[in-house]
Structure formats: C-alpha cells, structure tokens
Amino acid sequence: MRYGHTGKVLRVDLTRGTIATQVLDEELYRMYPGGKALAAYLLLSELPKGVDPLGPENMLVLSNGLLTGAPFSTATRFTAAAKSPLTGGYGESEAGGFWGPELKMAGYEAIVITGRAASPVYLWIKDDHAEIRPADHLWGREPEEAQATIRAELGDKLIRVLQIGLGGMGAVMGSKNLKGIAVRGSTKYLENAAEPSVIADLGKTLAKRVKENPLSWDLQVKGTPGLTAGLNASGILPTRNFRAGAFEGVDNIRWEQYESQLLSARRSCYACAVRCKREVKVDDRYQVSDNYGGPEYEAVSGFGSNCGIDDLQAIAKANELCGRYTMDAISCASVVSFAMECYEHELIGPEQTGGLELRFGNAEAMVRCVEMIARREGIGDLLAEGAKRAAAAIGGDAHFFAMQVKGQELPMHDPRGKVGVGLSYATSETGAEHLTAFHDAVLANPDSLQFKGVVPLGISEPLPPRDFSRRKVEYYTVMEHWNNFGKTNGLCYFGPAPRSFIAIEEVVDAVNAAAGWDLSLEEMLRIGERANNLTRVFNAREGFTRKDDTLPERLFTPLEAGALQGVSYPRDEFERALSDLYEIKGWDVESGVPTREKLRELGIEWAADLI
Amino acid sequence: MRIHLGGHLGWYDGEKRDWLTIEQSDPISLPALAARLGVPPEEVAIIAVNRRLAHWDDPPVRDGDVVEFFPPMGGGAVGGG
Ligand code: SF4
C-alpha cells in the first residue's frame, strides 16, 4: 500500500497527441519523492545530451512534492523543470498557488510533456480523465481572459489553470504550443495519507502559530516588500544595476509606502495561513489591475532601486505587466537595468530604443521598456533573450553590465554583504539563484530565532555574514541539501528552516505521516543531496565545469555607496571556498563534477555513466 | 524620539507598530532603548541612527533622533501564487 502519493505520472506526447499514465514503483519514489528530485531523475534518465531546449525533443516536467496539497500552511509548491533555453543546462522553477494541490487531488505526482502540437492546445485533466484540447481561440489572450474562457467552456469555475509564458520554463511550454494546463481533482489529501491525524493536527497548530511567531507574523503583515528598508540600511539593496548598495529614494519604495499607496488585499496560496501574497491596485498615474499578484521584494528592488526609480506606481505597473505577459519579474527587471546602463554608456542609443531615454531614474521609460520586452518590439526583442545574449549582441563592455550567471539574471541580493549568497549564485545548477542554501545573516547570532531553527541540521557555530571560512561552506552545504529536500517535498521556502515557522522535526514527522515511512532527518538530507547531484550531472553532461561556477565581474569591484561602500566580493577566498565546497560535496575539485564514488554512495551510480 | 522596528521586530511592540514615537529627554544607550521597547537584542542585526549605520556601543540617543532597528534580512520573493 502506498500513502501520501499515487506514484502516477501523466505522460503527454503532443506530437502524437497521445496520453498515457505511468505508475512509479514505491522504491523509486522513495529515492525521488517528487518535486525537484523526481524532475531531475526523469530529465537526466530520459533526455539525451544536447537536445535543443526549444525543440520538440525537450521534456517539460511538472512535479508535485510528497506534501504538496497537504492541508497545512506552506505545503503548496510544485516544480517546473526542463532543459533550460536560458542556460542550456538543467532548468527549474518552483511555484505555489493552487495548481499543484489541485493536480495532487486529481491523483498525479507529475506530468511529463514531450513533443510539439501542430497547433495551439491546452491540456484538461479531471481526475482520471485527461485530454488535449484545441486552444487556437486562446492565442494572444491575456492570462486572466484565457483562464476565464477555459473555465467557461469546461463549465467549472473551480478549475485551476497553469500558464507560464516567456523566459525559462515558460518558453519551453510555449515552444510545445501548449497554452495551459487546466486541472480539477476530487481526492482530498488526507484520504491518501498514512496518518491523517498527524497532518491535520499540524495544520491546526500552524494556523494558530502564524500570529504568535514573529517571523511568520512579519510575512503576513508585510510580506517580502518588508525587506527593502533593512537591506538598504545594511548596504546591500541593489541600486543602479548593482553599482551601489543603498538608494537615496528608498523612503519612497519601502514597505510603509507600499502599504499606503498600493496594497489592496493580502492573499494566500492553497490552505496557507501565512497569507504572504500582496494584492495591489492603482488607479492614478498608472492603472494597475489587481488580477495579478502585487510586487514582491524582488520586483520592488529590481524595477525600483536597481533602475534608480523611486516611483512605486511605476514599479507596480512593471510588475503587473510581468504577470499579464507571464514573464519572470527578476529577469525582466534585471535586463531593464542592464539596458539602462548600456544606454548611459552609449553602447545603445535612441536609434535602438526607438527614441526612449532609457536612463536610470526614468520611470516612464522603464515601464515602456517592459512593454517592449513583453511584445518583443524594437530593442525589446533583443532584451527578451536575456542579459547574457543581449550583451553578446551589443558587444563592447556590455558583458560587464550583464548581471547574470549561466544566462540567469541575479536576484536582488548583493553577495558583497553576504558571501554565501555568492556561492549560491555561482554554483546553482539553474544559474544565479538565491534560495539555494541560506542568506548568511541567519548564522550571525546563535540566540536568534533563525539560528535556533537550523541547529537540528548540525549548525552550531555563529558566523558573520562576510565570514568565508570552511565552516561556513560546510553549513552552506547542509543547508543546500535541506533546501533541495524542501524543493522535493513541496514545502514553500517560507515554511521550514531557515524561516523556521515550521520546525525541522515537524517536517520530518509530516513526511513520515504522509507516506507511512520511517525516514530519519539524515535520510531526508540525502534525498536533497541526491537531487543536487542529479542536476549537477545533468549540467556536466552538457559540458558545464568549474569555470562556469563564477560571478559577474562587477561583484569583485567595490560598492559605490551605502554602509558597505568600498567592499568587494573576495575573489581569492571565493576560489578557495569553491574548492572547499566541491571537496565537501564529494565532487572533483578541478572540474566540479560529482565523482563516481559519491554517486554510488547516493545510490545513483548509473548517473556516472552519463558524463 | 522616532523609532522604527523593521521586519519582525514590530511583533515585539505591544501594539505591533513598526513606527512609534517615545518621550526620551535624557540620553539613552541603544541597548537600554531596545530593552525599554521590549526588543530582544539577539533579533537585531542592523541599527541606523539618523540614517547612519550605528552599533550597540555608540553614544546614547535622545529626543530628536530617528532610530531604526532591523532584524537579519534573509531571502526575498518566491515565485508563483
Ligand atoms: S508562505 Fe506565502 S508563498 Fe509560501 S505558501 Fe504561504 S502564502 Fe504562499
């Protein structure tokens, strides 16, 4: 008997128009219990080397975690993974909301999509029933409208529709002519859980805890936009394309202004009492619809300080356009600040921008540029390719202004003030990513709530944010394995350590109560480590090596302003830390590739034969 | 004196405020101020006095100053939803 999961994977071949259901055996699922681990396993074992990410042979995997859809806070996330058109390596993103839980209720752990439909289609899944339906009439429609049309034609208002658009995984979905995936399921999570009462009790405990725990209270009241002022004071608020770490206009974009100028409601993902999602509405200089989520911190900083802009309405508009055109806000904002710096250095001019004065601080030009990217108009067509490709096309010093790693733009966190985040940016298999391990401040004070939360992982020694000792790298590694397990089990980053709204023991108990297993924390960390190694092997097979684990050159130059003015990312220590990291992970220090011994130890020696 | 309690530090204020004004005509050290506000020092990572970065052992503050306390600032947004 299997619990907490059905093992069912829906296989959709859009070229042939066929659908089949595969059932994974329990032993296999235990090795890769959903999310990132399952996606990485499927992609590595089934995709050959060298496929065109936008060709029909690429595979798009949408996979739930074991806990996705469990009725307790933060158990909401699914993974979308494929070979990435942005990096040419393993590509992945996680998302919360309601879609993953609905897919779980329909009885599937994952959907694997291959091929390419001859004309636009969408997928409709209702429990055991799945079909491919024409979507010509949805082409060019905005997400809200397309989703309303789908719900109307299927006659069910409660259907959840997944739509992802430009950039990364969305581009893969688009290349398959797949417009969306509509899902409706009817099996409650607890019906399949081994010990439903343990899960239900956790749900009640967490719902009560939200307001009693300062960290979740903060997320509920302010959400991520609450970070802006503190990062500015710390000297690490990305400003003008990472030139500075403090922004003179911060008072106009900090949380208090966001709350009074923009906020219209607080929203949640499925069954999550944290309710950290913001909804905003503006009817003034800009019209911002409340149909799309409000800007997260990343967008506030990305379209704000990092573009030298202190106009919250413009920021909200740019963010809304990202939602409307299903673009990733981090990448989009970063490519705009890149273009602004190219403009200021006259690498591009009004001829390329269609007369747009694309300078830092020009809010109208920023919003217009986002529109041009979304519609691929003028220079927007080039910028939509991402900062790395745009820089190559522009030439000259443009590459210096492209704040990206492996083709993925940097999130709005400056590693010059938290060196471990630099290690994330450099080594993450998906390119610059900030939720890989931790943000160093977690380790600063042993008496703090966040530090106490990570103690069960064997973390005991406090370390300052700019400490780059081997001990820091060891802690980094265990946190990376823990987070990879999180991306596998379907819990949101804001639940377990380092946010520590949910204790590590509670996660361990929930996993075992869901599946009827008896896994220890160490075994769960190994699941995370295994997922990490699978993605590493995926990239190694595509030719990635140590030389790709690097950072944008600008980070090795001093910050121009703010509390950390004059501080650079430490180049020598970085190289040493990289060697430490490979050693600790059991990877070859020269190449950064997992050794056969390591893969054998993780029970995936088959992967060594693929490199 | 104007005081800002950033991030989750506002939770420790009885009324859960993130900005408050207190009377403090005598100079008060930063640790004593945090204690008066009920903010645990181990949750404070960054202090700014009148917009400049400050430290626990800096000179005392008084009426007319703006003091901002911030917790350790971690990771930002996650996608989706
Ligand atoms: S904490 Fe926020 S992002 Fe995470 S599941 Fe809850 S509402 Fe969604």
Task: Describe the protein.
- The complex is a heterodimer of chains A (611) and B (81).
- By secondary structure, chain A is α+β, with helices and mostly antiparallel strands.
- Chain A starts with 7 loop residues before the first strand and ends in a 10-residue tail after the last helix.
- The model of chain A has no long low-confidence stretch (mean pLDDT 96).
- In chain A, the strands form 5 sheets. Chain A has a 6-stranded mixed sheet, with helices on both faces. A 4-stranded mixed sheet of chain A has the order 8-7-10-9. A two-stranded antiparallel sheet of chain A has the order 11-12.
- Chain A is built from 25 helices and 16 strands.
- In chain A, strand 15 and strand 16 (408-409) form a beta hairpin.
- Chain A is 40% helix and 12% strand.
- Chain A has 3 domains: 8-195, Aldehyde Ferredoxin Oxidoreductase,  A, domain 1, CATH 3.60.9.10; 222-409, Aldehyde Ferredoxin Oxidoreductase Protein, subunit A, domain 2 (Orthogonal Bundle), CATH 1.10.569.10; 419-610, Aldehyde Ferredoxin Oxidoreductase Protein, subunit A, domain 3 (Orthogonal Bundle).
- Chain A is globular and about 65 Å long.
- By secondary structure, chain B is mostly beta strands.
- Chain B has one domain (2-65).
- Helices cover 10% and strands 23% of the residues of chain B.
- Chain B has one helix spanning 30-37, and strands at residues 2-5, 19-21, 46-49, 52-54, 66-70.
- A 5-stranded mixed sheet of chain B has the order 2-1-5-3-4, with no helix packed on it.
- In chain B, strand 3 and strand 4 (52-54) form a beta hairpin.
- The radius of gyration of chain B is 13 Å and the shape is globular.
- Chain B starts with a strand and ends in an 11-residue tail after the last strand.
- In chain B, 46% of the residues are buried.
- The model of chain B is unreliable at 75-81 (pLDDT under 50).
- The chains are: A alpha+beta (611), B mainly beta (81).
